[in-house]
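Q: Structure tokens for this one, please.
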Amino acid sequence: NAGTMLAYTCKPLTGTAYAVSTDSDIFVYDLKSGATQNICKPAGIEAKQNDLPGYDKYPVWSPDDSKIAFLSQRRAGNESDKARLFVYDCHTAEMQDLTADFDYNAQNVVWSGDDLIYFIAPIEATHQICRVAPSVGEVEVLTKGDHDINAFTMAGERIAAEMCTISMATEFFGINPEDGSLAQISAINKSVYDHIRMGEVQKRWVKTTDGKQMLTWVILPPDFDPSQKYPVLLYCQGGPQSVVSQFWSYRWNFQLMAAQGYIVVAPNRRGLPSFGQEWLDQISGDYSGQNIRDYLSAIDDVAREPWADRDRMGCVGASYGGYSVYFLAGCHEKRFKAFISHCGIFDFDSMYGQTEELFFVNNDYGGSYWDTANATAQRSYANSPHKFVSKWDTPILIFTGEKDFRIPYTQSLEAFTAARVLGIPARLVEFENEAHQVFKPQNSLVWNREFFGWLDKYVK
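A: Here is the predicted structure, written as tokens:
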């Protein structure tokens, strides 16, 4: 703020309160006076209007320093509540929710002038740039298409964005603010793409067991021949509240899987953002329910195609996707020939006492395992994957990182022990220097070698 004030995010909680809540606030610090003001929990008459109990973060000053835009969530125990775009007026202390009628999350907020805000929102398994004028309050979706816009910068009337798709690693694009049209600026990987073939990415709408429509990406192998039959992989997403979008990754890469000759089925099952908050919220307290049926609806729908070999199907996933693999291993009814779980939740009881995000399991399980009067929580714990291992009958590969505090590596050890004692072919790959994800390039090479080696052995 013209070098006189600083806006920052802080979660002023300690101990148990810190563990069970996401309640962070926006603070404004006056460099001259040394005074600090919490704009999300002000004292005085504005307190009732401005008391924001959930995640409040990422403050951005307007160009004239009169307003602060930030993201706010309503529920203090739910990290995946709707991320609302708020504007705080520094002169009047009034708050304005600019996305009250917009059923998607806001992120990456950028001011354009003093009365126009651009931001990114996940919409139907893509990421688009949107804009809204505080004086008008109606959100306009500027861009369209099957892509992920992950970040952007504005200078005057020019917009430069980072964009990727399932078939393209991140490149720079210019965006016309008049009509949202895109023009590619960089082609960093063209020399690579010129010598490889990508598989076709299909957008498929699958009917769920409760009569809804679910967007599912289906990635076909390069040089796909519909007269042939191909092995099929069901991809289970983590989060659980993370969109299966047009993302590009050097580890969970759909095109790399397709290049090995597999058809990849990647459903946006219940509990994922970009399809409205009701679709996203449904999964909390229902881990073993509708989203699992959504997975089976997606794989069964594709398996009916003449080019899908239902006798050669695998199931893979990480984090919540790893939990999904463990749970499906006990109820898949012979659909799959192999499973791969990366850092998955196996034992809900022990997970409750191990994770560093206690607010997360409180929200998504419904409560603690000892709360016998809590029907939602008791249903969650009764359906923990470890209680169904007697039905496991399929080879399983398990990845984990020793520095994982989100879903500690002991969960993977429990699952591996159960599989081996049951006499099921099982392999454990443990990275001593990784946490919840594999970030180091050399470890990624090992990960991919193990991943495809297991599938080639038991599925292909």
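A few notes: Residues 197-458 form a domain with the Rossmann fold fold (CATH 3.40.50.1820). The longest strand covers residues 308-318.
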